[in-house]
Design goal:
A hairpin with a 2-residue loop joins strand 1 and strand 2 (about 140-145). The chain is of the alpha/beta class. The protein has helices at about 5-10, 15-20, 40-45, 50-60, 70-80, 90-100, 105-110, 115-130, 145-175, 190-200, 215-225, 285-300, 315-320, 365-380; strands at about 135-140, 140-145, 180-185, 210-215, 230-235, 240-255, 280, 305-310, 325-330, 340-345, 350-360.
Amino acid sequence: MPLSDALADAQTQPVAACVLKAGGIDAIERLKDARQANLLFVLHHWHTSRNFQEFWRNLFQAGPHIKVHIHEALVLASRRTDAVWYSPSLQQLLYLEAVLEEGNVVRAADRLHTTHSTISRSLKALSNGLGIDLFDKTPRGLKPSNVGRVYGVQIRSSLEQAKLAFDLARYETNLHQRPFCVGHSPYIHGSLLPLLEQLTLPGSEAPSILLRSAPTTRLVWRVLRGELQAGFGVLPIVDKALWIERIAYEPFSVCLAEHHRLAIKSRLAARELSNETLVWIPRSIHRLFYDEIVNYLLTLKFDPRRFLEAHTITQALDFAAHGAAVALVPRSASRFQRSGVLFKPLTDELIRIETALFVRRDQMRAAIKEFVAVALPAIAALKLNPLAR
């Protein structure tokens, strides 16, 4: 195969495959005429070659036009010339992806509902198996190395395909199982739950609706896998596989003890709370929503070290009742009556909670379509979405 034809395949095939088709090592010198290629793919396909070190030496001689970290590649080649190519587990790659996206092991552990020591051990095994230093140690913890970042970028598309295949398989397995399961976050608008408990699907043989409660991120995971047919969660929700419809908008209230110095005010602005210990949801419950609100609070000079976590609204009320902190809660949380606790409307429009209905986009048919057709008009009658046009 001519080199030009081989390089034309680079958009859909690993560069190594193109090089091999074009004549192997002898074609490396002519790679300078191609657009910058990800040589980590070359490393992968040449890893078991007897000429592995020779390949990298030739690559080194090709000149500065190839933008790679030659030294790191040569170190790797010298370590693993005679080794069998290490095959990482899917779990290891998921851990790596989470650490690269979150920036540190602790946040990755919160996101994946595991411990940071488990992730650290797994990534160490991955680095040892590959013979690559995926992370550099710094005073602030692990920092992705140059090779680690390149490796992470390339595995992301593979992980997305693996996740999609798994989701589709699980979804098809659960698609025809009864009853019809609907999930809801504990933080959705307070007026929605009584309505959901009364909803029924049309038809005498329609399955009954069972409600399940879980954090939004967990609901998304279960809807994608077919364990739930629909979910009611807190925005933002970002997944191209989901059909998402915002259905409710709700401001926040400040919950504080009746003897608190701010109890005399009828309404409160977030800026007035910047010196208070603030009770807020854990980031692990919904990291996108958490980051969105906390980033706004930080612009108001809030000290994140004074944030306390409450996994439930009732727990937040307990903090406030004892005067240990003030709590930010959805305005409908005032339905939870608690002696010695006051609710004050928060005036900041940017601190709000939005509820959405979501289902799998490719399964908007049959019972799921009927459920959406029944639920949306009933929810619209409650007039919970004043931002709707």
